[in-house]
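Quick one:
INPUT:
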């Protein structure tokens, strides 16, 4: 079998697996198709996700269902102001051995898992939030002078409430940038809310079937590297990112007026990685312009910093990204 034929076969297999996972998620989660699609895309290409939405929209349940259908070890940490870094990464404790001697033994924290749910991450202090930085980027944990490698695949899915900000600690830009996607979880419409209430009344237990496992997700990462990204596609992702910078020739008038700083170099990298997943899910072995545009809002909205005027105007960054998608031409 030729390389192109093998890659096409992988694309067909991935498309079928993705359909099965979506079916399993839909048995538990009502609506939220965009949220599910974005979260799965980030997981398949090794990215971390920040889910933002008011309480009760099923963010935690979504992560649990994904852990079940992907057969990943799952742990949840409820972030609170009194949570300490050692509560996340673990700590060294003194133990005795058979000879009566004492030694230090490292007890691993909940971060040693595959799918970590950091619930209400903005409620913990910056010191505790920073304990996640190394693991999110390097997939390692350093404590007591020792470095421990996290078993792949490893993902962080964090949640935060956009409304109740009293007593919270907003994530700094350096940590926000380590999230591949920021996904806004919308409120349910009338039909979806009726379905949720109906399921709650019936209280039927749902067993989620396993569709993929950790080794398959790691293997998929190698397959994604083979999805072709032509030079014009790469340049389009770069120009789209540069359009978020007010001093760039690709910026729109709105960006020049209301934006202080735009996307980092991680932004075009994330656009390409996400585009490869979408192309494969569409049964294609090459990236198209539409694949790059598809997740531009999720990739860029948390990487664009408004200036004082933008904040005073209460500018919607997601809408600004949509404007830039229409502003940046494919044949630039």
């Amino acid at each position: 079998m030729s390389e192109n034929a093998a890659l096409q076969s992988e694309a067909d297999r991935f498309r079928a697996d993705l359909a099965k996972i979506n079916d399993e998620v839909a048995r538990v989660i009502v609506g939220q198709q965009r949220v599910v699609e974005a979260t799965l895309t980030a997981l398949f290409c090794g990215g971390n996700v920040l889910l933002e939405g008011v309480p009760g929209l099923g963010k935690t349940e979504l992560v649990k269902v994904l852990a079940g259908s992907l057969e990943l070890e799952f742990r949840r940490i409820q972030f609170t102001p009194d949570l300490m870094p050692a509560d996340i990464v673990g700590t060294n404790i003194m133990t005795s051995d058979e000879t009566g001697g004492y030694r230090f033994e490292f007890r691993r924290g909940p971060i040693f898992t595959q799918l970590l749910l950091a619930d209400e991450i903005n409620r913990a202090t910056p010191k505790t939030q920073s304990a996640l930085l190394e693991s999110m980027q390097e997939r390692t944990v350093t404590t007591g002078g020792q470095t421990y490698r996290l078993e792949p695949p490893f993902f962080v899915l964090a949640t935060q409430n956009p409304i109740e900000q009293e007593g919270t600690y907003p994530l700094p830009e350096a940590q926000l940038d380590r999230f591949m996607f920021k996904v806004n979880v919308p409120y349910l419409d009338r039909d979806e809310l009726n379905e949720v209430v109906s399921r709650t009344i019936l209280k039927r237990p749902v067993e989620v079937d396993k569709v993929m496992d950790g080794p398959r997700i790691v293997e998929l990462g190698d397959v994604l590297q083979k999805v072709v990204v032509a030079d014009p596609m790469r340049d389009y992702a770069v120009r789209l990112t540069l359009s978020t910078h007010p001093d760039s020739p690709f910026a729109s008038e709105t960006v020049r007026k209301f934006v202080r700083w735009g996307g980092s170099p991680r932004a075009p990298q994330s656009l390409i990685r996400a585009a490869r997943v979408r192309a494969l899910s569409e049964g294609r072995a090459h990236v198209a312009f539409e694949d790059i545009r598809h997740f531009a809002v999720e990739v860029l909205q948390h990487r664009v910093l408004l200036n004082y005027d933008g904040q005073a105007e209460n500018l919607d960054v997601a809408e600004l990204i949509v404007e830039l998608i229409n502003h940046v031409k494919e044949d630039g």
